[in-house]
Write a structure and sequence with these properties.
The complex is a heterodimer of chains A (242) and B (323). With 242 residues, chain A is mainly alpha-helical. Chain A has ten helices and no strands. Classes of the chains: A mainly alpha (242), B alpha/beta (323).
């Protein structure tokens, strides 16, 4: 228990000390939320009163992706590159507690990030509807899906390749995931692709939980759950420690 | 503290490691005792790191077996890691971590760790509390790695090239810490290609090249065994060796310019006869080694022989195997 707590604290401290991670995790989502709520450049789905009502759920989905996928992949990828993981393999910490510490770190950062986003959204006049408590299991599933993808990259690719790919994937999943651009604005085939991506599934689910009048998200829940199971399984299978 | 009957802390029996077609380690056997510093000595690519990584449980033997403290490093990994300390050749610490943070974190993994502040003092990093790993020099990183290997009070310490690329003061400090470990009964296995290191520090030297043991013994034994009956001395090159040989009654050869070998036991009278002849000729004596070669001579001769015998040494064999 002592080792797990110390490891979690150390992981948290290292992420907070890392400026790029804070930028990706906190600054970019907040900036997008404030900017696109205030500036009327992006389309919003018909029937939505305020831009923030559409943007807030999408930005929460984005925060989950930034943290659990991008920051985790880059951090872990470089730890693998610098043989941090190899060295840990010769200590009594063990892989189980290492994974639990990473999960703990992502969880704590997520709570802080989402709290900041929610505060900012309320300040922008957000009026959440739907069934907000369902957003909690949605975020958890999303974190497992993106975390699995992040660790899969970190555990199979070189550190620099992970860095590049995580950032590229971030942009792609952001644009196609319905997080800030509604699916209704995309050509049919892109929307279809977007909805089977983990980002698309999570943003649809969060829209249905947090916005009254959003489409119900039965199939998106299934897609999200499949990602949340398959991605971590793939990471477990293919992750190499050195 | 350690009786002569103690079982070996490390046993390597006919260890073979292959990477595809390449044999990194070929039926290697040796043992390392508690309270001793064992040096695994060999040129780059000799198979040192592959052997150590097998002992640490990072890879499985292709054939043969290894035991550390009687445990199988892979099957009994969980029990073993609590009792070993590891120093990798490089890296191993997150780049944003400070020395005290790293030591306190590692201390949390063990039941009875050494106080991190004492360890920082011991390895001379007490003044580096605020520098992160990324901003530390190579020598400082090595010293922190050593401290991290010790924090759990290990019974066996694996140190891979512990003083490679370090300034003399740092090297002295690391050697002192390692010698102290030995005195506390720890079995220390270090790899090195630095002969001076092995000669100064080790109680037991295993010389390997191309994955096979070339020699195994104390530094003194190795230097004596390979030496035979001869006296070596240095003097100006081009001496009349036959004249000297007649005078002293032994065959004298000039092994290399200015380096002479006398095929005779190093008796006091023989040494006196050689120096008397030189005095008569009014020649300076650079040095004289009666019955002692340096480990370097042994090492260079053994590894040169191994190179001559090795089947088609391809460039890839020479590279350090560090996958």
């Amino acid at each position: 228990m002592k080792a797990l707590l110390a490891q979690t604290r150390s992981e948290l401290m290292l992420s907070l000390r890392n400026g790029e991670q804070l930028l990706v995790n906190v600054a970019i989502p907040l900036l997008l939320l404030v900017f696109f709520s205030a500036v009327k450049v992006l389309p919003i789905p018909t029937g939505v009163d305020k831009r923030v009502d559409f943007l807030a759920p999408g930005i929460i989905a984005l925060a989950v992706m930034s943290n659990a996928m991008v920051a985790l992949a880059i951090g872990t990828g470089f730890e693998r590159h610098y043989k941090v993981l190899k060295r840990l393999g010769a200590t009594p910490l063990g892989r189980g507690r290492w994974v639990l510490a990473k999960i703990g770190m992502v969880k704590i950062l997520l709570i802080v990030q989402i709290a900041l986003i929610v505060v900012a959204a309320f300040a922008l006049g957000w009026n959440p509807g739907g069934t907000p408590w369902l957003a909690i299991p949605a975020v958890v599933l999303g974190a497992f899906a993106f975390g699995g993808i992040g660790l899969l990259m970190a555990g199979t690719l070189r550190g620099t390749v992970t860095l590049a790919l995580a950032n590229g994937l971030y942009l792609l999943l952001l644009l196609l995931g319905g997080m800030i651009i509604p699916f209704s604005e995309m050509p049919g085939f892109l929307g279809t692709i977007g909805k089977v991506l983990p980002s698309g599934a999570l943003s649809q689910v969060l829209q249905s939980c947090l916005r009254s009048g959003a489409a119900s998200a039965g199939s998106a829940w299934v897609v999200l759950a499949v990602w949340a199971v398959l991605a971590p399984l793939a990471a477990i299978k293919f992750f190499r420690w050195e | 503290m350690v009786s002569p009957e103690s079982p070996p802390a490390i046993e390597v029996n006919n260890l073979t490691i292959r990477y595809g077609d390449r044999i990194a380690v070929n039926s290697l056997s040796f043992a390392a005792m508690p309270g001793q510093i064992t040096a695994l000595l060999g040129p780059n690519g000799a198979g040192k790191t592959s052997t150590v990584e097998t002992l640490e449980g990072y890879r499985r033997p292709t054939a043969g077996s290894v035991r550390v403290l009687g445990l199988d490093p892979v099957a009994d990994h969980r029990q073993l890691v609590a009792r070993i300390g590891v120093m990798l050749q490089s890296g191993g610490v997150a780049t944003g971590m400070r020395p005290g943070e790293a030591l306190r974190l590692f201390a949390s993994y063990y039941d009875d760790p050494i106080n991190p502040d004492e360890l920082l003092e011991l390895v001379g990093l007490a003044d580096h509390r605020s520098s992160t790993w990324r901003s530390m020099s190579g020598g400082e990183q090595q010293r922190l790695s050593l401290a991290l290997a010790l924090v759990g009070r290990p019974n066996v310490a694996f140190l891979d090239e512990p003083t490679a690329g370090i300034d003399p003061a740092g090297r002295q400090l690391i050697r002192r810490v390692i010698a102290d470990l030995r005195d506390r009964g720890v079995a220390v296995l270090l790899t090195t290609h630095d002969l001076e290191e092995a000669e100064k520090l080790a109680d037991h030297v295993v010389i390997i090249d191309h994955g096979v043991v070339l020699a195994d013994g104390t530094p003194t034994e190795l230097m004596r065994a390979s030496q035979g009956d001869e006296v070596r001395f240095g003097a100006p090159s081009g001496l009349d060796v036959s004249s000297l040989g007649e005078r002293i009654g032994a065959v004298v050869t000039e092994a290399s310019p200015g380096e002479y070998v006398v095929a005779s036991a190093a008796t006091p009278s023989m040494v006196a006869a050689i120096t008397a002849w030189l005095a008569e000729m009014d020649l300076p004596l650079a040095d004289l080694r009666a019955g002692r070669q340096r480990l370097e001579d042994v090492f260079l001769r053994l590894t040169a022989d191994a190179d001559a015998k090795a089947p088609e040494p391809t460039p890839s064999r020479r590279r350090r195997s560090r996958r």
